[in-house]
Every structure is written in structure tokens, then in C-alpha cells.
Amino acid sequence: MNRNLYKLAGISLFTLSMLSCTKNLNEYNPGGATSDATWTTPEGFVTAVNGAYREQRAYYGKEDGTLISEGGTDLWFTANKISFANQVTKYTGLTPASPSSAGTIFRLFYQAINLCNAGINRIDGAGFTDQADKNRRLGELRFLRAFYYWHIVEQFGGVNLRTTETQTVELTATRSSVSAFYDLIIGDLKFAADNLPNASFWGAEYSRASKKSALGMLARAYLSRAYYANGAERTDYFTLARTTANDVIARKGELGTDLWASPAELWNFANNRNNKEALYIISNSTNVQLDYDLNANRLHAWYLTTYSGRPGLVRSLAYGFDGQKRLQPTRYLLNLFNEQADSRYAASFQETWTANNAFTWTAANATTFGKAASVAGATMVPGISRAMEITKQVVADKATRPWVLYDINDLYNANGTIKSLTDFVPLKKFLDGSRTAVDAQPGFADIMVIRLAEMYLISAEAEFQLGNFAGAATQLNVLRTRAAIKTPVNQTAAMQTSAAEVQTGGINFILDERARELCGEHLRWYDLKRVLGGDQFVSRIKLGNPDITDVQPFHRLRPVPQVELNALTNGAEFGQNAGY
Q1: Alpha carbons 508 and 511: distance in angstroms, whole number
Q2: N- or C-end of the chain: fewer Cβ atoms within 10 A?
Q3: In angstroms, rounded to a whole number, what is the distance separating the alpha carbons of residues 573 and 178?
Q4: What is the pLDDT of residue 257?
Q5: d(Cα 431, Cα 445) in Å, to the nearest integer?
């Protein structure tokens, strides 16, 4: 979409932090225009809609969003065990008073919600004469309000639910139930699904919310809501999740979406722009002045290991910017894949690097990298020779290989804790072919926030919870068939699962399949929090990620930032989340 956003002021949930934000936003207000003057025409009102998209970019493609959605789970630990963002990646020192990525998102997403509420409340005065056009713009705003509120309620629980614009200082706030949040979220998304156009309607502005975005988010919301319910209500929500996900799948031609034939095609950067599998996209411009900040999308950097400076390797666009790593995979995640049959492993992770710089081994180099003396004198030819290998396999004769080589026993201890403080198998899903300078941080790739494969996983999870294990297996097998290695031996049959396997594996079987398909895609913390109770949440994280030792059952919610409570005259009445 067009990112020439009209950055008008918005007031967030609580008073003090919001007012400072409002001042910053006003500094960007062109020509001193105000919302009262600008939002009285359809053309001017679009600036409110455009502005409502803004704060999602503070989460997706930035480290805050990555750390609170993937960090602190069974799949990822801080890269090389560095002390970074311990509050959300290790649950160490996570207190209401501690600054954290979650607190940043709390403030920014409430700010965005206030702008959504302002637009929703004022659209009747915007002069629309075309009812369909008005409903489309209202559909965008209601989609975005639901989108932001889903993140808020899942991260923080039943905090403050506002549906009207905050225009003046408010010194009190009240809590709302989780069910009230979901009533609003689901109502907003149903309206959006009924009134938003197909993505093709938007043309070059394809990252606007569309019908497929709303339906995809609605399926996700129904699934999340089901876990807060009991009895017949629980069954109803799982049924709605299944029905909505299946509806998206059945209508994929109409909605303009489809699965790629292979995971390699899905993550091929040539297919990144307006990826056909995406249901909702956050786009970025190569003109950084149009992006949220000058760094745009930095997903490309967060999961990479160090390769530059190793024998035969210099930093390159092809291998990515390795100077800002944040997360590395657990042994548990790597071992979820049978890489002999499942092509998702090779499409997601990088184990080998070909030399991009001439190099000749010396005796000193050989000693430094644990090589046999016989390696001295061996040369690397750029574009031909292997320079480095980091593998989940056990390699018996590492010392005689004329390249840097670390195997699974170099990377992890037998109990799954991380051994290496320098190297790991990197996630390569987000390597960014739009970058133009090897040492530059910004990337400009699109981010798929919701994609069609998730609909199969939602349908499968709902079927599982409804006791239809055959139906769950059928949906999982669509993705497994796509993922199966086809040559030289077709592994499709080997990749199929069965109703019995799903039933025996339980919800952990579903979680494992989501990990294989969606690892790194801003969902893992939500997945664990959704399906696991407090003790199960703790045990699953510690089992998969034994380096995390401080996680507690109450960490299924984040603390309300203390600075926000301090801004209220009824902060004690509003209360802190349990455990904090």
C-alpha cells in the first residue's frame, strides 16, 4: 500500500506515556492540518485509514515483534546465549517495571487502536456518498482494530477494551473480560470479511486488508477464542474455526490465493512480492522515507549465524547481514524435521556455504579450526569449493574436511542445552534479495503475516479438538504432501500421517507440525500460550529449550507496564496481571 502516511496524533490507553507519543506524532503533521479539518472528505479520511496501518510495522519486521512472538518458546534461544532481551527470551527479570519488547508493543498498539476508534467513530461525517466505498474503509479500520486487539488480549489478557476515541487526558481505566475482547474482535472481522474487496481490487496497494485477510484472521480468532470456552460453547468455536478456515481453502481461487507447489518456491525471494500464498501482507518500500523507520524490515538479520570472516567467506548479499543475530534454533526444533523426507528443512535452514573468497589453508589456520595437519595447503575456489558447514548431523571425520565444519555435537550438549557460543544452524526463510549493500541493516521484503498454509493447520487443530482425528490428518497431509521431497525418491507416502498417529500424538503432535511449517513466523509464543495450561506451558518450554530455567505458569501473560498503571488514579483497582 501507499506508505505516505498522515501521521496524526493518537492517544493510547494510559495517560502519561501517551501524551509524549502524541507530541512526537504531531511533529510529523504536514501543514498543521488537524483530523477535524482533514477527515471531513473521503479523500482526507483515507489518511486516517492509512495511519491506522502504521504501528503494525513496529512489530512485524522489527526485533520487538520477533522477540515476543518467537523468543521464550521451545523453538528459539538467544543467539550464542548472549544476554539480550532476557525478560522475554528467558523470562529473567520480567517485571512490570522492567523495560521490555512487550511493553513497547502495549503502548504502540493501543495508540493504533485509538486511531482506529477515531476513524470508526467519525466515518459518518467524512462525506462518503458511495456506501460500498465507505464500508470498504470502515472494513479496513475494523480489521485493523481486531488485529491489534488480538495481539493485546493474547499478550496481556483482559485489560482495557475501548471502542471510542480518547481525545483528552483520562486518569482512570477499567478492565474488560477476554470474552468481551473476542466479541469485538469477531464482530469487527465479520464486518470486514463482508465488506472488504478481494486483494486484486487494491491493485498496487495489495498490502491493504482484503477479504482473504479478514477471513484468515477470523479463523485464527475463532481458534483462539475456543480455548477460553467450555462445553457446547467450546465446541461451537472450534466448529467456527474449522468452517472459516475450510471456507478460505475452498474459495482460494476466488480470493486469489494458493499454496506453492513446494516450500522452496514459497520462500524463493523471487516470489516474495505479493506472494500468492499470503492472506495478509505487510509491505516495505525500497524508499526508506516511506517506511516506518529507516531500517524497514530486518527479519533477514535476526536468525543468521556468523559466516563472514571464516576461511573462504566474506559478507555478501546472498548470504545476508550476519552482524545482528538475535535468535538461534533449539536442538528440539532441528530434530523435528526428517530432512531425508521433508523439504521444509532445506527450504527453511542453511547448513552449507560455498566459498565466495579465495583461501588456502595454512598449518596455523588448521590448528585454529581443529583441522588435521593434512588440510594445510588445500585451497578454496570461489563459487565451487565448500567453505563452511554447520549441520544437525553427526560427522565422524570432521578434522579431515577442508572446510569449517560444526556438527550437532559441537552445537548442543546431550541434554539439549546449547554448547557453542559462536555457531548455529541459521533460519534462512527471510533472506532478503532486495538489499543493495552488504553491510546495510535495512531490508525491504514483504512480510507474510497470515498465509494459506495456516488455514490447513487451524482446520486440523479444530478437527483434533472436535475429536475428528481423520479430518485433522487429512488437512495436515495436504501440507505434508507439498513438503515431501519428490526426487530422486518420492517421499510423499512416507510423509503421510494417520488418524491414529494424530490421536496418539495429542495436541503436541499439532504443535510439532505447526513448528515445522511456521517456525520463525511470529506465531510460536501464541501457539504455546493458546493450547497449553500454565504447568504444560512451562514443561513444554523447558523440555524443548532447557536453557530457559526461569519460566513460570503466570508467564502465559505479560505484565501490564508499571508506567501505565502509575499514570492512573485507580491503578491499584485496575490491577496487575497475576504473578507480577
Answers
A1: 5
A2: C
A3: 18
A4: 98
A5: 9
* CA atoms within a 13 Å half-sphere pointing along the CA-CB vector of 133: 10
Measured CA to CA in angstroms, residue 482 lies from 143, 275, 453, 460 at distances of 31, 17, 10, 16
Q: Which three cell numbers stand for residue 236?
A: 461451537
What DSSP element (H or E) covers 478? Answer: helix 469-483
Q: Percentage of the chain surpassing pLDDT 90? A: 89
* Residues above pLDDT 70, as percent of the chain: 94
Instruction: Please check whether residue 335 is in contact with residue 353, taking contact to mean a CB–CB distance below 8 angstroms.
Output: no
Give which of 432, 438, 203 is closest to 315, Cα–Cα: 438
Over the chain, what is the mean pLDDT? 93
In this structure, the number of other CB atoms found within 10 A of the CB of residue 580 comes to: 15
CA torsion through residues 226, 232, 236, 241, sign: positive
Q: Give the sign of the dihedral formed by CA 40, CA 42, CA 46, CA 47.
A: negative
Please report the DSSP string for 55-76 in residue order. GGGGTTTSHHHHHHHTTTSSSE
What is the rounded distance in angstroms from the CA atom of residue 178 to the CA atom of residue 558?
15
Query: 3-class SS at 181?
Result: helix
- CA contacts within 13 A on the Cβ side of 438: 9
Say if CB 96 and CB 561 are below 8 A apart: yes
Which tens digit of pLDDT belongs to each residue from 425-474?
Answer: 999 999 999 999 999 999 999 999 999 999 999 999 999 999 999 999 99
Checking if the pLDDT of 25 tops 50, the result is no
> Could you tell me which of 452, 521, 49 has the C-alpha nearest to residue 215?
452
Write down the pTM of the prediction: 0.94
Predicted pLDDT of residue 33: 53
pLDDT in the model for residue 34: 63
Domains with residue ranges and CATH for the chain = 1-202+525-575 (1.25.40.390), 302-328+335-411 (no CATH)
pLDDT of residue 188: 98
**Which 8-state DSSP code applies to residue 280?**
E
